[in-house]
Amino acid sequence: MNDSLAHLPRKVVSGAMLLLDEAGRLLILKPTYKDGWEIPGGLAELGESPWQAARREVLEEVGLDREAGALLSVEWRPPMENVGDGVHFIFNGGLVTPAQAASMRLQASEIAEARFFPPEEACALLPDRLAARVRPALAVRPHGPPVYLEAGHIRGGPGFTLPWQP
Fold first, then answer.
1. Partners of residue 81 on adjacent β-strands
2. Which of 19, 20, 47, 136 could bond 93 through an S-S bridge, CB–CB 3.0 to 4.6 Å?
3. Which tens digit of pLDDT belongs to each residue from 28-53?
4. Could you tell me if residue 89 is inside a domain?
């Protein structure tokens, strides 16, 4: 690698999907490798787009082959312990029918449980940093436009607010 390129910053990039059932409940997952709950999705691999990562992760985690739909949110996060800063994308995953929900197969090595919860109950179970990303994504779903956040704060431009913001 060229020496001038070796100093370029490295960012973590992830893609995730919001998947809701016909009752409007949000699918969240309980990982085996850490406490708390997450939404389906994960880190993009080298050369993989956030959209591709979201699709791959949903297939791996719950066995549903879903193309990610419209972009709902993008969030930049500052560096965390042992991890550089990151850019996190959430896409609309659409509705999960009862038959699709019944056909879900969890990736046993990573996912202990998958459940649908009413959105606010789901957000209460998510880590604060993730709930701050999911709530705006839910609010703009299904008709957008997408929302941009920095460290959990909406940066949508002058006058842009969501219902829970002052």
1. none
2. 19
3. 999 999 999 999 999 999 999 999 99
4. yes
